[in-house]
Amino acid sequence: MKIVPKKFKVHSLTGRINQELMWQAFKAVKKNRGAAGLDKVSIKMFEKNLEQNLDALMRDLKSRTYKPIPLKRVYIPKGGGKLRPLGIPAVRCRIAQEVVRRLINPIFEHQFHDNSYGFRPGRNCHMAIETVLKYTNDGHKFVLDADIKAFFDNISHKLIMDIIAAEIADGNILGLIEKFLKSGVMEDGVFRPTTRGTPQGGVISPLLANIVLNYLDWQLEANGFKFVRYADDFVITCKTLPRAEKALDLVKDILEQDLELELSPEKTRIARLYDGFQFLGFYISDRTTRMRPKSEEKFKMKIKALTIRSHNLDSEVIIKLNRVIRGTVNYFAPPFATVISQFKRLDGWIRKRIRCMKYKRISRADNKRMKIKHIRRLGLLSCWKLCLAVKERK
């Protein structure tokens, strides 16, 4: 990949770091919540001496004395019994990353392709899926469902820095980004240096992903392909199978030769729209757009964790269940989704869990003892009724 430095680069970004920017960055980090990092300092603890902490961090960022705290390694369920590694930065480091992200994002935002929807202002997952559906409705019956192998773990640091340095001439900002990338990870008491990749969990990581994959977007555009990308998750739609095969060859070449990445052979495939494919939590085919099986499995796991039979059924359980139901329905019930029958089925399954929790057993006889109207009186939300309400609202 040939990177041509701009004739006029952006200078003096460091001079834009002020108290107002520091406060905005802290508010954004607080809003996103998140656990404490390796230093065990939570957002609440950091906030106790907020003004002094922000002033000290601002001085470090401006004077090149900032030193990142290594990331804390945690693992979260990925589905199918697998775990996804996350690198959790300390609160102080998350604020520092947010400051730099806010400084450099406007420089790159106007360069991004219109079909890139991930982690960009005014864009979301539903808009990405609506664009995919527009293409499939226009006769694109073949889909390249592509997956980049361990994308966030394998991005080249040199590639990231070269792309950013082509636009930005502020050495301090470039140095900060490099420090974020090379902060290292602490796992089981052992420090592991990071020579490649940007951590999933890092505030600046989604922007760096878009900066790197923007090259792929414009190469696909130059070759006449219709595509939609959300961070490292993307699909390419085509009208014929040979065209989809050509798209696969092109993506392989761009990733391997230009971006030093590779496709996951197990997760990359060319699908017929008739057979369906998965994208951003949805299963999409020429007949339906609904929750994919893995998304439904995750939803059920959350419900199961809240409805353990040996526990008591009380108002606190209902509040927690409603929180999970509301979040799931809000995401999976946009106007284009066909999920009403799926949510009706899930409602029946949740009611069964509630009855088992109430009577400490599984019995159909309990359906009469605790009727649907009784469950409603407890305040439990109905997935499909909430779905209808969300669709009407949108």
Q: Which SSEs are present, and which pair or pack?
A:
Layout: H1 19-32, H2 43-48, H3 50-63, E1 71-79, E2 82-88, H4 91-109, H5 125-137, E3 142-147, H6 151-154, H7 157-165, H8 171-181, E4 185-187, E5 190-192, H9 205-222, E6 226-230, E7 233-238, H10 241-258, E8 269-272, E9 277-279, E10 282-284, E11 289-291, H11 293-306, H12 315-332, H13 340-359, H14 366-369, H15 372-377, H16 383-393
Parallel strand pairs: 1-4
Antiparallel strand pairs: 1-2, 3-7, 3-8, 4-5, 6-7, 9-10, 10-11
User: What proportion of the residues is helical, as a percent range?
Assistant: 40-55%
In the sheet with the most strands, the strands line up as 2-1-4-5
**Shape assignment:** globular
Q: Report the sheet-strand fraction.
A: 5-15%
Q: Whole-number radius of gyration? A: 24 Å
Strand count, sense and barrel status of the largest sheet are:
4 strands, mixed
Query: What oligomeric assembly is this protein in?
Result: single chain
Total beta strands? 11
State the distance separating the first and last CA atoms: 43 Å
**Order of secondary-structure elements:** HHHEEHHEHHHEEHEEHEEEEHHHHHH
Mean pLDDT: 93
Derived from helix and strand composition plus strand pairing, the structural class reads alpha+beta
The number of helical elements comes to 16
